[in-house]
């Protein structure tokens, strides 16, 4: 038997081939950093971790590292700071209203530049109302994920005690005021133990005020995000109504009402009615020790609420492989079944109609009909206030709202100042 010898050059070639194959395998493993805002009560981080772990099991060539970056504004600040430092996230959930800011900062890439045209049909799977804050200039910049509307919660026990039908919420501003008068509890010395209604004026003051403006027949901005209408008569009337709830009618706490503590006040029976995000639905269900109701916001000239919440954005600095992996992750996270489960776990609105046709969601709505309130309100919803340099513009409006409810300025004075500041900021974006 002849003994075969392997020439050294063949060993070198074989080793080089092995290294090439190994490096190719390593190169195919894509790692994505995923910024996620934690802003609403509930074990949302555990839900996100469970979802990302499931995704990685199904897609072992993609690694997702979630980074919990605080509330939305903090998450945006951290993402833009990381961008300037050269290491932005690959994908992030940020407010739908941050779209213009992210475009102006050249931070994100539209999905249309990642996928061929024939693969962009998936954007039609989402509610058109949510896509209003997700598309501009003929391109899709965000994909809806944790989206919401504002809804009204009420304590049914408090309604019964006040002689009100616990299953019939107020349908108009006039009715809400009438109910709130009956629901406000004061002792002989005038100390209030239960307010009739609480509409937060910190955190997302502009969002709650926008609901009042819509209900009074006005939208606060144009679709291009270059004009606002803060000081129009209908806007002033809306803010005057908000101020009057506390200062004239004394059915709501005077001064600012804190966004973060309003649900706690509701749980502790310090307020009988509250306005807040549908994203608090699971939180309320888990923590209210009394029977409660959930309904659409009361109308004045019309019913309505702004949409709200966050979209998935893909950052521009990502490589082509990272971009494609990020799209794969986004589409996986927003399938009908997962959108349904996310809505059940968190209280956010399942962002696509077919999610509501899943057995999972149908069963849930049958046992908990309030889950469908925000979905049904979408027919009356409009896009959340969104402009170029949105944080500066909304801060001007937030400051005006707080000045009015604190009594340092009249609603007209406050909104005139906010309008002037917004016009100054937006002047450069008018074409």
Automatic annotation (TrEMBL):
Keywords: Signal. Pfam families: SBP_bac_8. It comes from the Bacteria. One of its GO terms (cellular component) is periplasmic space. The keyword Signal applies. It is found in: Periplasm. Residues 1-27 form the signal peptide. Belongs to the bacterial solute-binding protein 1 family. This is sn-glycerol-3-phosphate-binding periplasmic protein UgpB. The lineage of its organism: Bacteria, Pseudomonadati, Thermodesulfobacteriota, Desulfovibrionia, Desulfovibrionales. The gene is ugpB.
């Amino acid at each position: 038997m002849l003994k075969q010898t392997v020439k050294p050059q063949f060993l070198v070639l074989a080793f080089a081939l092995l290294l090439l194959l190994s490096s190719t395998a390593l190169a195919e493993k894509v790692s994505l950093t995923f910024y996620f805002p934690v802003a609403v009560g509930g074990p949302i981080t555990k839900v996100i971790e469970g979802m990302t772990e499931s995704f990685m099991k199904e897609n072992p060539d993609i690694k997702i590292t979630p980074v919990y970056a605080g509330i939305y504004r903090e998450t945006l600040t951290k993402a833009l700071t990381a961008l300037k430092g050269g290491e932005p996230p690959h994908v992030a959930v940020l407010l739908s209203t941050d779209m213009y800011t992210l475009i102006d900062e050249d931070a994100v890439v539209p999905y249309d530049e990642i996928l061929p045209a024939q693969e962009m049909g998936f954007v039609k799977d989402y509610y058109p109302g949510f896509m209003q804050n997700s598309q501009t200039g003929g391109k899709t910049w965000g994909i809806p994920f944790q989206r919401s509307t504002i809804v009204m919660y009420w304590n049914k026990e408090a309604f019964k005690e006040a002689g009100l039908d616990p299953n019939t919420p107020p349908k108009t501003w006039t009715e809400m005021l009438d109910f709130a008068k009956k629901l406000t509890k004061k002792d002989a010395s005038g100390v209030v133990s239960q307010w009739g209604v609480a509409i937060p004026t910190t955190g997302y003051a502009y969002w709650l005020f926008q609901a009042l403006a819509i209900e009074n027949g006005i939208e606060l901005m144009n679709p291009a995000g270059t004009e606002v209408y803060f000081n129009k008569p209908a806007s002033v009337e809306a803010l005057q109504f908000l101020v009057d709830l506390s200062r004239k009618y004394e059915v709501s706490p005077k001064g600012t009402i804190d966004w973060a503590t309003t649900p706690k006040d509701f749980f502790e029976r310090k307020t009988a009615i509250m306005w807040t995000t549908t994203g608090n639905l699971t939180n309320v269900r888990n923590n209210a020790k009394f029977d409660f109701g959930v309904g659409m916001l009361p109308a004045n000239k019309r019913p309505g609420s702004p949409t709200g919440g966050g979209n998935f954005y893909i950052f521009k600095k990502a490589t082509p492989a990272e971009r494609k992996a990020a799209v794969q992750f986004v589409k996986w996270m927003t399938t009908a079944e997962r959108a349904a489960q996310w809505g059940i776990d968190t209280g956010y609105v399942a962002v696509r109609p077919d999610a509501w046709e899943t057995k999972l969601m149908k069963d849930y709505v049958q046992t908990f009909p309030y889950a469908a309130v925000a979905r049904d309100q979408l027919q009356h919803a409009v896009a959340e206030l969104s402009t170029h340099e949105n944080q500066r513009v909304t801060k001007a409006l937030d400051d005006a709202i707080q000045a009015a409810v604190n009594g340092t300025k009249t609603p007209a004075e406050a909104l005139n100042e906010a309008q002037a500041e917004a016009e100054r900021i937006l002047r450069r974006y008018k074409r």
